[in-house]
Amino acid sequence: MTNFFQGLLEFHFLQNALITALVIGVISGVVGCFIILRGMSLMGDAISHAVLPGVALSYIFGINFFVGAIVFGVIASIMITYIKGNSIIKGDTAIGITFSSFLALGVILIGVANSSTDLFHILFGNILAVQDSDKWVTIAVSAVVLAFVVLFFKELLLTSFDPVMAQAMGINVSFFHYLLMVLLTLVSVTAMQSVGTILIVAMLITPAATAYLYATSLKIMLILSATIGACSSVIGLFIGYSFNVAAGSSIVLTASAFFVISFFISPKQRQRKRSVQG
């Protein structure tokens, strides 16, 4: 523990990693709440992997990977929604087709770019290598996502819990669905630096699922999920740095540990157990 705090005072890269981890933990927790409430966990997994071709093309053309990743993430979400809404194909099938196709294309493009090291970092993350520019982009993107959540909180709440009523009230349900897909894409791209594309869905789902075990309202759920995501990121970074293991994996395992503990001690779980036994 002493080494970690001493490193924070001495090493700029560790300071960048801590700030980025905190921001990503908070924003992943917030967006993740809407994802699990809408039953869109598979969508989060699909988009987090669908950004891979965009990242590869960004490396090939020498532009910031945020640009390519966001473009391909939005394209993937539009394709999935279009296939689901305009055919007899079910949502999970549309997700599976799009996810596997984009992932395969991304692997091929990475091969064309001859960048196996970059592929490893994309898949598994490397938060200790975050640069100042990456940190500020992450903060800016997260601020935009939070601003949209605050601005459209009522609409996102209604379309998440009762889309039929929301539509009857004149709310454009499709617009907020696509808005959430864009926000999900932005969060997936920012989280790529810390946990990689393979583990992004864990940071989107696990803190939110843990918060759901305690929360009695969406606002409380959002606050708890953001707090759990931030704590998981900081503790995971500490473990990764102190014991020289993958920080991204440590972050995810820490979030999973919070969920396992909460699964057994949360009031909702105890109440459910009593009702089953009764």
How would you characterize this protein structure?
The protein is mostly helical. The protein is 86% helix and 0% strand. The protein has 14 helices and no strands. α1 packs across α2, α3 (41-50) packs across α11 (173-212) and α4 (52-61) runs antiparallel to α5 (65-85). The longest helix has 40 residues, at 173-212.
List keywords for this structure.
278 residues; mainly alpha; globular
Poorly predicted segments: none
Distance between the termini: 46 Å
Mean model confidence by pLDDT = 87
Apparent shape: globular
Structural class by SSE content: mainly alpha
The beta-strand count equals 0
The fraction of residues assigned to DSSP E strands is under 5%
Rounded radius of gyration (Å): 19 Å
Order of helices and strands: HHHHHHHHHHHHHH
**Residue share in helices?**
over 70%
Largest sheet: none
Number of distinct helices: 14
Secondary structure elements and their pairing?
Elements: H1 2-10, H2 12-37, H3 41-50, H4 52-61, H5 65-85, H6 91-112, H7 116-124, H8 132-151, H9 153-161, H10 163-168, H11 173-212, H12 218-243, H13 247-265, H14 267-277
Helix pairs in contact: 1-2, 2-8, 2-11, 2-12, 3-5, 3-6, 3-11, 4-5, 4-6, 5-6, 5-11, 7-11, 8-11, 11-12, 11-13, 12-13
Short summary:
By secondary structure, the chain is mainly α.
